[in-house]
Amino acid sequence: MNPGSPSSSRADLVEVLDQVHAHVRPLIGQGKVASYIPRLANVPIDRFGMAVATLEGEMITIGAADEPFSIQSISKVFTLTLALEALGADLWKRVGREPSGNAFNSLVQLERERGIPRNPLINAGAHVIADVILSSSPNAREDLLGFVRERADNATISMDEDVARSEREAGFRNIALANFVRSFNNLDNDVDAVLDFYFHQCALQMSCVDLARAFLFLANRGVCQRSGRAVINPDRAKRINALMMTCGTYDAAGEFAFRVGLPVKSGVGGGIVAVVPNAMAVVVWSPGLDGKGNSLVGAAALDRFTALTGLSVF
């Protein structure tokens, strides 16, 4: 494959995914599943899937790329997109744009920074985003589901009620975060409603193929590759990609920038999405997590993918 060429052929990408799979195969099964969410504790740790969707309309897959899984925090990119469309630049009065340097569910900075979360991709920030969406839509959950189905071109995508229930039953830290943000008057809606929406967005079930299609608009300056219609304007697509690069992998964003060099967003369900601007979206799923809550195999796979292809923003 010609390094750095975003128009590489399907055959090139098939060969790359084969090489990536061979490289990470010894790692599959390592790490730990997200056992603090009981429903996710039962996901087999040996699952692996990968999908690449290109702006030329190609879809290249390997492994369990069609198997739905709980996308968890990857959903924060979808809700951020909706919130930006609802509130525009005023959103940044309520949530910051800086890496937190702390765990995704940390309360440490909220008191010092008076209830303004560091960024929209940590849990506290996602609660503010959920609040914005609830204020702008009387059918927030249905609107989110419709948005995701349209992006992925899959009307069967759903929210797993068992996962949402499991999230709530284990959600003590999220409950504390939301109430803390509310104590600084940075939530307008009932805390329980905010949390219910948040738990359901995390319970979205999507496959690598679904996610690769759904993220293509961020590789295409905000334009849906399939329909040619603008999802968001180019400036907002740029901002979302920037936040994925600096804040998308909890407190390991610097390591991902160093190793992968692409805007990425991970979730504790084991999925990681990477955006190659003007070229493609790449998704890896493997449930075993490292100590930061990112897929251990997924990180290695994306590292190898960019090493083989030269597809990096650096």
Tags for this model:
Beta-lactamase; five-stranded antiparallel sheet; 8 strands; 44% helix
Describe the structure.
- This protein is of the alpha+beta class and 314 residues long.
- The protein has a single domain (10-309), classed as Beta-lactamase (3-Layer(aba) Sandwich).
- It is built from 13 helices and eight strands.
- The strands form two sheets. A five-stranded antiparallel sheet has the order 2-1-8-7-6, sandwiched between helices.
- A hairpin with a 3-residue loop joins strand 7 (271-276) and strand 8 (280-285).
- The longest helix has 15 residues, at 10-24.
- It is globular and about 55 Å long.
| Ends distance | 18 Å
Pattern of helices and strands: HEEEHHHHEHHHEHHHHEEEH
User: Largest beta sheet: what is the strand line-up?
Assistant: 2-1-8-7-6
CATH fold-level topology: Beta-lactamase
- The residue ranges in which pLDDT falls below 50 over 5 or more consecutive positions are 1-7
Total strand count, please? 8
Assign the CATH class. Alpha Beta
Strand content: 5-15%
Instruction: Report the CATH architecture.
Output: 3-Layer(aba) Sandwich
Count, helices: 13
